[in-house]
Structures are given as C-alpha cells and as structure tokens.
Specification:
The complex is a heterodimer of chains A (about 425) and B (about 525).
Chain A lengths: L2 H9 L6 H21 L7 H26 L7 H18 L4 H26 L3 H20 L4 E2 L2 H8 L13 H27 L7 H23 L9 H19 L1 H11 L1 H6 L4 H27 L1 E2 L7 H11 L11 H20 L4 H24 L5 H6 L6 H4 L4 H4 L12
Chain B lengths: L5 E12 L2 E12 L3 E5 L6 H9 L8 E6 L2 E3 L4 H6 L2 E4 L11 H5 L6 E2 L2 E2 L1 H14 L15 H14 L4 E5 L7 H16 L3 E5 L3 H7 L2 E6 L2 E7 H4 L3 H9 L17 E11 L7 E11 L3 E6 L5 H8 L6 E9 L2 E3 L4 H6 L2 E4 L3 H5 L6 H6 L7 E2 L2 E2 L1 H14 L16 H13 L5 E5 L7 H16 L3 E6 L2 H7 L2 E6 L2 E7 L5 H8 L9
Parallel strand pairs in B: 3-10, 3-11, 6-9, 9-10, 15-22, 15-23, 18-21, 21-22
Antiparallel strand pairs in B: 1-2, 1-4, 4-5, 7-8, 11-12, 13-14, 13-16, 16-17, 19-20, 23-24
The chains are: A mainly alpha (about 425), B alpha/beta (about 525).
Subcellular location (chain B): Cell membrane
Keywords (chain B): ATP-binding, Cell membrane, Membrane, Nucleotide-binding, Repeat, Sugar transport, Translocase, Transport
Pfam families (chain B): ABC_tran (PF00005)
Chain lengths: ~425, ~525
C-alpha cells in the first residue's frame, strides 16, 4: 500500500466502501465550509446546528432503516405514510382515550411493528416485490391517516412533545454551558479514543500492520476536534437549548445499528442477501426471515420518526411525512449504497443525510426558494450517484485513489490478473441443470 | 503438402494493462481454411489476444501489427472487425432470452423495407442460416426455450448472417454436453470444408486434439509454440506440457484410498420439477457413500445430477415427494439448508459466480459465510478469528492473493473455486457434494483441487463429485454412479470404469446394477 492510500484507508475505517465514504465526508466538509462563508458564519452557530438536528433527525432515523432495506435489495416507499399513520393513531389515542404519553410511544412502536409485519409478510413470504408492497402501503397508510384523523390535525400533550422538541435539561453548576451536553461530549471523546485503541489491538492480533502511530494521531485529533467543537456549540446555545432529545435518540440508534450491521451475524446476513440472495440461501441464511425483519424494522423506525415529527410540530396532521421516503432514499444513495443491494453503510447514509440536510439548511438561510432547493438537491443526488457509477467503471474508487495511483508501486501484485483477463475462461454460464 | 496461404498474421502484439503486461510480443499465424486452436492456462492471454484481434481493445491500445488477408488492418471497434468478416463468439452468449431465434439472428442487423422490419425476408433468411448450422427448430421459438447447445448454434448462425470469414469461438463447448459438443465440432469441420477459418479457444484438450489443424500455445502472455497437429503427432500430454511448461506426469495426484464403512445413504429419493408438477427430476434415486470415498456422478447435461444434489441439500431445488436420508445409520431430516449444514452436508455449486459466492464480498467474508456462528461470540462476529481462519485456508489451499481482504472478484477461476471449497470446509462437513468442481479452471488449478479433494477423504469425509468430464471422474473417483433422466442407471467401481461403459449407462434406462 502506498502512503496515501494507507492514510486514506486508516483515516476512514477499513471497509471496502471507505473510499466512497471519504468522498462523502469531504463533500460534507466542503458544503459546510461553503455555506459557512456564504452565510457569513451563520451555518455553524449554536442555534442553527441545534435547529438542523431537530429538523432533520427523523429523516436520518429513516435513513438508518432504509439503508438496511436497500442493502437487502429492496426499497420502502411507504415510510412517510407509515409515519403519518402512526402519528395520527398515537395523537388520537392520547387525545380521545387520554392514555399517558409513554404508553402512547409504546403504542406507536407497536403500530409500526404491526404495519411492518404486514409489509414484511407480503415481501418475504408471498414474494411481492417491495416496490409494489410499499407503493400500496404508501396509499393505504396515507389514506388511513386521513380516515382516522378526518383529514384534520390532532394536537399532542406536552410531555409527548419532548421527544421531538425537548432538550437535555440543565443540571449541576453553572458553567455557562449545558452540563449534560459537555458530559456527552466527554464520553464521545473517550469512546473514540477507546475504539481507536481497540482497533489497533485487533490489527495486531491479526498480525497485520497497524496504521503508523502518526496516522492514528491525526485521525484521533481530527475526530476529537470535531467532537469538542460540536459539543461546545451544542452546549453553548441559548439557555434551555442543547442537544435535542431527538438528536440523542438518533445517536443511540446510529451507534446500535452500525454495530449490528457491521459486527453481528444478523448484519452479515443482510449484506449476504443483498449481495447474492441465492448464494446466501445456499449458505444457510434464512432468506425469508431476513427480508421480513428488514421490512418490519423499517416500519418501526418510520413509526418512531413519525412520532418525533408529531412531537416537534405539536400536532399530527394529514400532510405529515410527505415525500420523506424520497429524502431517506436519497440520503442512502448519496451515502454510497448500491442500487442493486449488498453495499452501503449506516455511517455513509448518515453522512449522505447530513449532506442533504446542510444543503437544505444553508440554502434556506440564504433565502433560496424551495424551487431552487429542490433543483439543487436533485442535481446533487444525480451527480453523487453518477460519480459513483463512473468511478466503478473506471475501476477506481475515488478521486483520491486516482491521484494516488502513480505512487502505487505494488499494483501489479495486488491484482493477480488484470480485471479484463480475469474473466478469461472462468466465466461459467448460468445453468440450472447438470 | 503445400501450406495454404496465410489468412491472418498477428505480429509481436504487446498489450499492457495498468501494472500488468497481458501480452508480450505474441505472434499468431492462421492459415486460410484451417481450424486453429489457442491453448493456455487461465490468464495466459488467450482472450486478450482475441480482444485485440476483434477490436475490443482498439488499435493504438496495443503495439504490434495485424495482417489480415494481406493487408495491415487497424480495427477501432468490433464493428470494424465484423465488417472485415471476423466474428467472435464469446463464452457468454449475447442472446436475448425473451426474443425468438429470428429476432436474435438479426438483432441490430434487421432486414428493412421502407423503414420497417421485413419479417418475411428475415424469416426466410433465418431458415437458411439455421440450416447451415444444422439447427432444426421453429425460428419463432424463444431463445430461453432452447438448450444451451442450440443457443450456441444460434450464435454461430448469427455470425453467418454477418458474412463471416474468420470465426472465433471462445470456450464454445464449456457448457455443452458431449453430444452437443460433438455436433459443434462436426460443424467446425464442415466449415473447414467450405473454406471458413476458425479459431477455437478451449480447455478441453481432447476436443482440440480431435478437431484442430494447428495449435498455438500461450503461456504468461507469450507465444510458447505452434504445433502442427497433422505433422507432429500431437497429443493431449504434449499440449499440456506446452501449457504448463513442464511435463505433467499425471493429471491426478497419487492417492491411495482408505475406504471405511457406509455412513451416508439415500433411499427412494423422488423430487418434482419446481414449475411443471408432472415432471420428476429425481426418480426414486438411491445411493451410498462410504467414509473416505470419492463417489462420482456421471450424466449428461440435464440428467438431473444437480437437481439430485440440490434437493438433498435442504430441499433447495424442486418439490420433495418421497425419500429418506440416513447418516451413520440414523435417519436425518434435511428440510432446510441450515438443517443440511447442521447435519454435516456441504454443497459446492456448479456455478460459483451466480449462486456460489457473493461477488461483493472479500475473501475472508466469503470463507466464513456458511458458518458464521463458528467465529462469533453471542452472535457478534470476531474479526480476529475470522482473519485467522481465512489466513489458514489461504495457506493450506494455496490461494494466490496478496491478502484475504481482497474482493473475490479479483481472483481467477481456480482461486475462486478454492475460496468456495474453503467456505464449505469451514462448516466441518462429513459429506461434501462438489458440483463440477473444476469447470472453467486451468490444468494446474485442477490438479490442486483434486489434491484438496483427496485430502478431504483422507480425513474420513465422504465426497461426491458431479462432473461432465468422464476422464476426471474416472481418474478421481473410487466409485461412479451414472444418472439418466433423473434415475440412477448404474454403479461402476474404479477398476471397471472406462468412458465407453459409463457413456452407455449414462444414455440408457436399462438398470444394470443398483444398490
């Protein structure tokens, strides 16, 4: 490995899609800097960052589920409608039957699970393509929302609103910052450092060369720097504001699902199904169960996102969740997932979602109309995926990779054969019978 | 005998891919009206050379000259070479399955009249072309409804539609059964009579020996030698020697079988076709496997060998009707793939690319995919153990790769097959079913795979080998069952096995010896 690819690989984790992620993170940084300059420093103010998180956290939550759906080779068009349906059911239940709000949340998750089981059943056990099942679901649950709510808005009680509009409370001595947020930041820093050392140890146990110390150093410095900066921004906003509760829910979900998809057998199975369903089945993966769970999980997360949105806007309405599915899908694809399934990461999707969110936010700060915002978002999605397709065709993964190419001395032995001749004679024909 | 005039001469062709020299100073001389075979191991540069010739790698991307019919030619794309009458038929057929034979024959080349397709002319010409290649089918039949052998013929007929002078066939018989292969080879001889020159790339050396006039051998991107079959007394061993650069004493490693008791038995195995309910793909098949034994399944393409194997492996094919499976004297239930894996079965599919591997995976992920629980603690995969396992297999199976983190797509066919073998060895099976384990891989890798199989049986496992290549079965197996139309029609021991006997049993329903 040459120095540059080494650095690149080590800075951004060790998966195959890391180069893509590198591209996305640079894009994100570029967008932040661009808007930071353009808006005269508005983008990175405490107030704006907090607003971005509370405004887009539900889309990012959807992106987590959508990533898994897309990796498994499906799509879910119904998430917006499912969110809206759950929102109205929960709001109605709390308003008319005055059930306490914690129970309301449980109810909402249950609704999501039931809807998910319904969609998962059709996709996994009947074999209807998810596109159709969820297109039907999109209509079904949108209609359901309007039927239950009489196409009207239903307000939700105060306690419930916290999950969408609440913040970490102020506790402890007056430091001028939100203390819990500071604590959170500290934990994050420790977590990052611990993970880094765990990773180095793992590499050593594999007898692979761990990244040189200076790379680890840079990597840690960058990450800790970002965390410290974010912590201070989130902790130092208007009194009473801090990291939104919805943001905390998001962080917990991202960590949990990243771990699940990356490190567990269940996660491996999702990628296996998306990469080659038949091969996965013949390797003992329970195909139907994986598909069922992935679809069901998506609806549960959609239900959660719906409740957060309702909580934030203090009422459930007939227009909730419109075109959320498109935002979530866009986030996943910008984040480097493959349209044909099998590839993609949670972190990539989150970065993709943040790109969209910051783009939206920055353009809004500049007073750009929603017409232009949509046009720009459309182009970003197209270009991001086009770049991906192009770089795959070229057999290189990123601009950085291309730049680094002349420095790679060992390329001849990394690819035992050139890709063109690797297919020389081993391209077996697909046949069923022997 | 005077040598016929030269049709094609490729002079010192050198083609470099980033970092790799695929062809180094390769020369090829093809005489008019001959059948010229190109042999070489995978990666020797055969396909690259043909891509240079046909303009897939355009003029300018390589160095050297191509002299065709006395002229120095420069092809910039396939279209240009086809206009000159050079047609290449790739291993992967370029046919549209949902279209008829006629439609496929004239795809992109449709006869027109006043702006619309002249189907009448197309139909008539289609019949003529099909006649030329000996294809007797209704021209309106859809491609997906005819077998691979006939599809191959459609491809060749398509070449004739373009007025071919030089026909290049890349592994034309790789997917064909013996009868179809024979037909194809006869066809090539017929073309020779009519003055059409053919270049054939094939791994099946017996076919090459039978049909070729001249053989050019490539190794590591260089021309090693050109053999005149009519003059030099060339045989398979001679070709292999040129390909691998050493004399291969035996195509199979030495092995003394140590065969134990019967431990696996299948009785009355009957399975219905997945879509047509009244068709049986396995008809009351029964067989046994002993510990330490390599059992072969011989049969023509479509005889039902794969169907038998896959239906046993957790009912992965068709609808189960009846049958019992016994292992170590106890009946076992194999209702799903996890059942089969738990009971110590492993199935290595004949088609590693489409159903054997997830081509997006890297090597280590592929190797552990069938038994993740072995490297996991409380459902969490341990990357260190995964890596260690993969490294062990990389070394013990001698998989050529710089690292187990590489993607499996980057591997050659033989190394991919080793990865699949590792994947199933990792599940600690007692019985491995290997479906066409050496298809499309070169001689050297085949030898290694045979060695791996022998090591497996030496550990007391049983191995079933399904193969279309009779010499392979005869050389490798301790006992061979023959399969014909879903039924087991015979059982032949190593001592008695010869191609004629097997072929007879593979093509007739008369039961001779059934367990």
């Amino acid at each position: 490995m040459s120095r540059i690819t080494d650095l690149q690989k080590n800075l951004f984790g060790g998966t195959t899609s890391n180069a893509r992620q590198f591209g996305m993170i640079s894009t994100l940084v570029a967008i932040v800097l661009l808007f930071q300059i353009w808006t005269g420093g508005l983008t990175l103010t405490s107030g704006n960052l907090i607003a971005v998180v509370s405004q887009y956290s539900y889309i990012l939550i959807l992106a987590i589920g959508m990533l898994m759906v897309i990796v498994a080779g499906h799509i879910d068009l119904s998430v917006g409608s499912v969110a809206a349906f759950t929102g109205i059911v929960v709001a109605k239940a709390m308003q008319e039957y005055s059930i306490p709000w914690p129970l309301g949340i449980v109810l909402g998750l249950l609704v999501g699970a039931v809807i998910g089981a319904w969609q998962g059943f059709w996709v996994a056990y009947v074999g209807v393509p998810a596109f159709i099942v969820t297109l039907a679901g999109m209509l079904l649950f949108r209609g359901g929302n309007q039927y239950i709510g009489n196409a009207d808005t239903v307000p939700v009680p105060l306690g419930f609103r916290d999950i969408g509009a609440g913040f970490l409370p102020e506790v402890g001595p007056d430091t001028g910052y939100n203390n819990l947020t500071l604590l959170l930041g500290l934990l994050a820093c420790l977590g990052v450092v611990a993970r880094e050392f765990k990773a180095r140890q793992t590499r050593r146990e594999m007898n692979a060369d761990a990244a040189p110390l200076w790379v680890t150093g840079i990597r840690l410095a960058v990450m800790v720097g970002v965390i410290v900066f974010a912590t201070l921004r989130f902790a130092g906003g208007r009194i009473g504001t801090s990291v939104p509760i919805s943001g905390i829910i998001l962080i917990v979900l991202v960590l949990a699902y990243s771990y699940y998809t990356r490190n567990t057998i269940g996660g491996r199975h999702i990628y296996a199904v998306g990469g080659n369903a038949r091969a996965a089945e013949l390797s003992g993966v329970k195909l139907k169960r994986v598909n069922f769970l992935v679809m069901m999980n998506m609806s549960v997360l959609a239900a959660l996102a719906g409740m957060i949105f309702v909580a934030r806007s203090a009422a459930s309405g007939p227009q909730d969740g419109l075109s959320w599915e498109l935002d979530a899908i866009a986030a996943v694809f910008i984040g480097g997932a493959a349209v044909s399934g099998g590839l993609g990461t949670i972190s990539g999707s989150i970065v993709g979602g943040l790109v969209m969110a910051l783009l939206n936010n920055g353009l809004q700060l500049e007073g750009v109309g929603s017409d232009m915002v949509q046009i720009i978002k459309g182009l970003v999605l197209l270009l991001a995926v086009a770049f991906d397709v192009y770089s795959k065709k070229q057999g290189r993964f990123s601009i950085i990779g291309a730049l680094a190419r002349p420095f790679q001395r060992d390329q001849a032995d990394t690819s035992a054969e050139p890709p063109k001749t690797a297919t020389d004679t081993d391209t077996d024909k697909a046949q069923v019978a022997g | 005998m005077t040598r016929p005039p030269t049709l094609l001469e490729m002079r010192s062709i050198t083609k470099t891919f980033p970092g790799v020299r695929a062809l180094a100073d390769v020369s090829l001389v093809v005489a008019e009206g001959e059948i010229h075979a190109i042999c070489g191991e995978n990666g020797a540069g055969k396909s690259t050379l043909m891509k240079v010739l046909s303009g897939v790698h355009p003029h300018g991307s390589y160095t050297g000259d191509i002299v065709y019919r006395g002229e120095n030619v420069q092809f910039h794309d396939i279209r240009a070479s086809e206009q000159a009458g050079i047609v290449i038929i790739h291993q992967e057929l370029a046919l549209v399955p949902g279209m008829s034979i006629t439609e496929n024959l004239f795809l992109g080349n449709e006869p027109r009249r006043r702006g619309s397709i002249d189907w009448k002319t197309a139909q008539r010409r289609a019949l003529e072309l099909m006649e030329q290649v000996g294809l007797h089918e209704d021209p309106d039949t859809l491609i997906k409804d005819i077998g691979v052998g006939k599809q191959q013929l459609v491809e060749i007929a398509k070449a004739f539609a373009k007025d071919v002078k030089l026909l290049i066939l890349d592994e034309p018989t790789a997917a064909l059964n013996e009868a179809d292969s024979q037909h194809l080879l006869d066809l090539l001889r017929g073309f020779r009579e009519r003055g059409i020159t053919s270049i054939i790339i094939s791994h099946k050396l017996n076919e090459i020996e039978a049909v070729a006039d001249t053989i050019t051998i490539l190794r590591d991107g260089r021309t090693i030698e050109s053999l005149d079959v009519r003059a030099d007394g060339v045989n398979e061993d001679r070709i292999v020697q040129g390909m691998v650069g050493r004399e291969l004493n035996s195509r199979f490693p030495d092995h003394t079988p140590d065969i134990g008791e019967v431990f696996f038995e299948v009785r009355d195995w009957t399975v219905k076709h997945p879509s047509s309910e009244d068709r049986l793909v396995c008809k009351g098949s029964g067989f046994t496997v002993r510990r330490g034994e390599i059992v072969g399944f011989a049969g023509l393409m479509g005889a039902g060998r794969t169907e038998l194997a896959m239906s046993l492996f957790g009912r992965s094919y068709g609808h189960y009707v009846s049958g019992q499976v016994f292992k170590d004297g106890r009946e076992i239930q194999l209702k799903s793939v996890p059942d089969a894996i738990r009971n110590g079965l492993a199935y290595v599919s004949e088609d590693r690319k489409s159903i054997g591997l997830n081509l997006l995976d890297d090597i280590k992920t592929s190797m552990v995919a069938a038994k993740l629980s072995k490297i996991a603690r409380r459902r969490v995969v341990d990357p260190v153990r995964e890596h260690r396992v993969a490294e062990e297999y990389r070394q013990s199976l001698r998989i050529k790769t710089p690292s187990v983190d590489e993607g499996v797509v980057k591997l050659s066919g033989g190394n991919q097959q080793k990865v699949v073998l590792a994947k199933w060895m990792f599940t600690d099976p007692d019985l491995l079913i290997l479906d066409e384990p050496t298809r499309g891989i070169d001689v050297g890798a085949k030898y290694e795979i045979y060695g791996i199989i022998q090591r497996l049986v030496d550990q007391g496992k049983g191995v079933i080998v399904i193969s279309s290549e009779l010499p392979e079965l005869i050389g490798l197996c301790d006992r061979i069952y023959t399969v014909f139309e879903g039924a087991i029609t015979g059982e032949v021991t190593r001592q008695d096995a010869n191609p004629e006997l097997l072929m007879k049993k593979m093509t007739s329903l008369t039961k001779t010896a059934t367990p």
